[in-house]
Amino acid sequence: MSRFTELTDRTGTRSVKWDMAASLFQSESILPMWVADMDFKAPESVIDALTERAAHGIFGYTMTDKLIEGYISEWLRKRHSWSINEEWLTYSPGVIPSLHMMVQALTEKDDHILIQTPVYPPFYSVIKQHDRNIIENPLMLKGERYEIDFEDFENKIVKNNVKAFILCNPHNPVGRVWDKSELEEMAQICLKHDVLIFSDEIHADLTFSEYQHIPIASLSKEINHQTVTCMSPTKSFNLAGLQVSYLITADEGKRKSLKDMFNSQGMFMINTMGITALEAAYQQGEEWLDGLLATVENHRDYVIDRFQNETDLVDIIKPEGTYLLWMDCRKMGLDQSELKKFMQSNAKVGLNDGVSFGEAGKGFMRMNIACPKATLEEGVDRIIHALQQYKG
Length: 392
Prior knowledge:
By secondary structure, the chain is α/β, with parallel strands linked by helices. The chain has two domains: 2-43 and 287-391, Aspartate Aminotransferase, domain 1, CATH 3.90.1150.10; 59-284, 3-Layer(aba) Sandwich (Aspartate Aminotransferase, domain 2), CATH 3.40.640. It contains 15 helices and 15 strands. The longest helix is centred in the last third of the chain and has 25 residues, at 286-310.
């Protein structure tokens, strides 16, 4: 589809991905393939809705209503087979602000919170910044796929009296879409030891054709009441700058605590344009999203094939969801600073540093493949050429 092949110049738009790249990677010739937003225009229905709303010309205080609740609940039913009660919804400008609120509202100072590493960097900060303690349950790379060490998961919970577990599903950066048996085992351990589940499911819609995203809270009524789920249309439809997301909390007491915490921080209203975009995306964006998924799946397979056929120094962990590739560069024999320098100076491609996802990310880099094929080919060409020169 032309909508996913069109090259759009994002420089000069105050784009974090593009306009910060030269200073961040210390080169004007860097190709940015790092931060998790896409180089695709949003669906036409979203652009049209935003244009119409902008033309109105008045941008006063904006509310959410039953219509918005209905669009969200219908989206979850259609895309994820999850029927929610609309009163479970709480709105937020983003998943990270939501995690901050959850940690503050539902845990106490010095509590222990478990994460599965390597993992999205803000998971560390939302724990440390509120004087809670990080407990790591490292994921195990078995062959070409990451798995959960369930024995370690439960042992860490018991040993450290863990109060909450931040789940990432689909997982960023390793790309796993946790299956039903894995979700059930984690949930049952959490129920057994009364551990709250904070589930970041912002990539829920970005699951490839062989896999199915299952919201962990949908597994049972008991698990639902132990869980707070964070979702958003922003990753799915490339709307991150519009700052709109929502929490799903079945337990009335937890929901009240969260709403009180949001209100105490003055976070009780959503961006006008964010609400407009959410409504248009969930009403009319399915065809665009299906086209996106087909495009990114094709990109995933293209990159894996190129690396398998043209170099033996870097292995791509095949993702089951997201538009992010986790690159195993350990065969290069470089320390992390050398690896970063190689990608910046030799390949001239801007990637996310694996260690930013924790010590378990040593020897890895993360690549964003949600870009037109021409950009992707250029990035892969640069990296493989640099690897071939390095080996030579």
